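so i finally got all the pieces together for this one. its four components total, 416 residues if u count the protein bits. some of the lines might not be protein, just check the labels. i wanna see the whole assembly predicted at once instead of chain by chain like last time, that was a mess tbh
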Amino acid sequence: MSNPIDDLLRQLRQFRDERDWAQFHNPKDLALALSIEAAELNEVFLWKKPEDADPARVREELADVLLYAFQLADKYNWDIPELMREKMARNAEKHPVRRAADLP
Amino acid sequence: MSNPIDDLLRQLRQFRDERDWAQFHNPKDLALALSIEAAELNEVFLWKKPEDADPARVREELADVLLYAFQLADKYNWDIPELMREKMARNAEKHPVRRAADLP
Amino acid sequence: MSNPIDDLLRQLRQFRDERDWAQFHNPKDLALALSIEAAELNEVFLWKKPEDADPARVREELADVLLYAFQLADKYNWDIPELMREKMARNAEKHPVRRAADLP
Amino acid sequence: MSNPIDDLLRQLRQFRDERDWAQFHNPKDLALALSIEAAELNEVFLWKKPEDADPARVREELADVLLYAFQLADKYNWDIPELMREKMARNAEKHPVRRAADLP
């Protein structure tokens, strides 16, 4: 039985290796690529009200962010849901419930 | 039976609602928050060789990026593995195999 | 007698007003536009050694960053050299000389 | 006779050299530092209406962006007003007047 995250990572590795791109994928440049895609995501919203951004473009740019985020996690051999759960636990400590009026 | 992505989304929604933060989570500011976390991720690598960045800090900042990326996808009710697979298919068209010497 | 910064600001205001763009230029979106240009600047260096980036492209993207930075300062009616000198003084306090081995 | 931009550049060089930081200031990391400061600038506006951001913090983060932008230009020995004027001329070609209803 497979799970969707492992399937995606397998495909990402294959995609990279077929193109011989592992040589470029050091973690510093992967993080840089991720932040460039994050800026392209932000560009979809630029000069606009949140609801006026084109969802098809949001979807595509968000996908690029996620693809680099997954590849960076994979570079370090990290389990993605685990690192997310770990950070959520930390965030819960930093922002205890009942301070609803604080900014997020 | 549950899957890890749905579990994470459920916890993220609960975390947000317990703090009454849905009011802040419009897609434009979620995308902005994501790009700010992406910059914090990049800061771990600033002035350093890729291998000299502290993995514990990379892990934490990458988690923040992923948490906002998941929340943004959830805002639009998108299936995360599906939007990633869709973009990978598009990228495969844009970058056909056998052009290994091109930059990624 | 004119100075180059005032001349640039005058031209930027005229450029904006001829196109009726003042309506878009709230400080939040100007800051967002600036960070998007900063990402385009970073893209020139992506997957490369610093010395392999194309200077002509660096120059152009850096100019876009500066143009938005000047417009944001102008939005608040700030004197640009003054705000820079002010921050340099603060940085000098934060990073006293003689700690040369620290990271910047 | 001095001009304010040359004075700032002189001070920035002195600040850097007193701390022995020239070794870190390759153009790739300077561009990265600039984009990290741009994200800190954006953070002042996060989850807020444009008019609710604290001007004192905007001023400080914008100064950091400008300080890195000036240092990057100086790294390439570029004249700052000149590269800005050059880009404004290009932008005027790309966005001819009389298309006021277009997005900037």
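The CA atoms of residues 9 and 70 of chain C lie 7 Å apart.
Chain C touches chain D through 69 residues (CB under 8 Å).
anyway lmk what u think
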